[in-house]
Amino acid sequence: MKPRLLRLAALFLLGGLGLFTLAVVWHNWGDLLSSPRHSPAPVTTETLQRGQYLVRAGNCIACHTQRGGAPLAGGRAIDTPFGAVYSSNLTPDAETGLGRWSAQDFWNALHQGRSRGGRLLAPAFPYEHTSLLSREDSDAMFAWLQSQPPVRQVQPAHTLRWPLGTQPALAVWRALFFEPQPFRPDPKQSAEWNRGAWLVQGLGHCAACHSPRNALGASAGVADLSGGLMPVVNWYAPNLTDERETGLASTPLSEIVRLLQTGRHTQASVSGPMAEVVQHSLQHLHADDLQAMAVYLQSRAREAGSSPKRPAPPPVRASVAEQGRQVYARHCATCHGEQGEGAAGIYPDLRGHRAVLLDEPTNLVQTVLFGGYGPSTAGHPRPFGMPPFVLELDDRDIAAVLTHLRMALQPEGRKAPEVT
Questions:
Q1: If 0-12 CB within 10 Å is exposed, 13-18 middle and 19+ buried, where does residue 413 land?
Q2: Spatial separation of the C-alpha atoms in residues 125 and 239, rounded to whole Å
């Protein structure tokens, strides 16, 4: 009887594996097989202008341009916890770029995460976000890319750990975490709100950074803005729905637009990966689109409600407090002022500054180690920067001075926990 039960169990197991395999195959190929053929409209000047605008809105140039290399020729390493993925060449070179691609091939890449010929793309390319784009958007982007000068540059091979970069592994990942879907406007919201939602969830792919990722690298969804530590680069993307972290619920819309467009407003500035987004993408967007994004983001923040009050942190040891005071006086006070008051229009006021008071102090550590530099934009062409201190301060100095900044220089009721 026992061998018979074992055989039955084995049959059930094999049957289950077979059904799972069929489900994975259908999930990854069904939409491609059923995708209708499409003939794009004739290319006009308006089409090219729209395509250029959408490519900029998607920040494509940032990932698809190697440092010091030709724009959009690819080759930039996108580091992940599983290895590096190298961006592809988007110029119309016939051998190494998109020269032999069709508009249908490009649509399959954006909507289904497939390269020409059907090969599955690694999810470092945010196709869960670009799947929200319409066929007309895709055609316009492709037309503009095809109008650019071709650059011959071979894409380096990915260095993902085996078997994570293989087609079977990518097929399973997609079956678990990816379902292409068009953008569906919320009929209860205004046209402006829905435009902002489309920009944030689609081309802006804000959740690619501002959403936590699980052990397999999947985010919580295109509309999730709950923040998280960005893998490998180790910057913390704030929770955009948390008033304590970003202040989006209470900040005037004009100031949010100003931050997106120039990289700074009266109480905040961007640096790190967000500075790159402003530099290459957001500053080029139309004012009404930035306004729509601000309306959507503020709505999400207000919908989330107020954050729970943070308990007062325990006092720090006198030796740490003194060390922090000395380091601040020696290296920081010249620019930031003896009490952290800064200088209007040049150095930010650090008292009550949300980036300073985040529970997660990673961004502060990054800034002290490697410097803080805002983007150069039309609205702020010569931003002041902060020099790196990685060669001057040791870990204890950095922890002490940041603790001094988060406690001694902050008003009562706003103090943040010690940095260890």
A1: exposed
A2: 22
Q: What is the pTM of this model?
A: 0.89
pLDDT for the residue numbered 412: 87
Q: Enter the tokens of residue 219.
A: 């985010």
CB atoms closer than 10 angstroms to residue 398: 21
**DSSP letters along 169-201, please?**
HHHHHHHHH---------TTS-HHHHHHHHHHH
Strands 83-86 and 77-80: antiparallel
Q: State both tokens at 103.
A: 């508009």
20 has a pLDDT exceeding 60: no
Separation in Å, CA 265 to CA 332, 383, 417 = 22, 12, 26
The candidate with the shortest Cα–Cα distance to 197, out of 287, 295, 53, is 295
Secondary-structure percent of the chain, ordered helix, strand, coil, rounded to 5 = 45, 5, 50
Residue 154, classed as helix, strand or coil, is: coil
Q: Which residues pair with 213 in a beta bridge?
A: 219
19 pLDDT exceeds 50?
A: no
Contact 230, 219 (CB under 8 A): no
Cβ contact 227:238 at 8 Å = yes
Q: Which residues does 6 contact at the CB level (< 8 Å), separation at least 6?
A: none
How many helices (H) and strands (E) the chain has is answered by: 17, 6
Share of the chain above pLDDT 70, in %: 91
Q: Is 61 buried (19+), middle (13-18) or exposed (0-12) by CB count in 10 A? A: middle
pLDDT digits (tens, 9 = 90+) for 267-291: 788 999 999 999 999 999 999 999 9
Task: Tell me the mean pLDDT in the region 224-230.
Answer: 95
Q: Residue 345 pLDDT more than 90?
A: no
Crossing angle of helices 253-262 and 287-304, in 10° steps, is 120
- pLDDT classification of 206: cutoffs 50, 70, 90: very high
Mean pLDDT of the chain: 90
The 3-state DSSP class for residue 322 equals helix
Structure token digits, residue 377: 């934009």
Rounded to whole angstroms, how far apart are CA atoms 66 and 52?
A: 19
What confidence tier does 135 reach under pLDDT thresholds 50, 70, 90?
very high
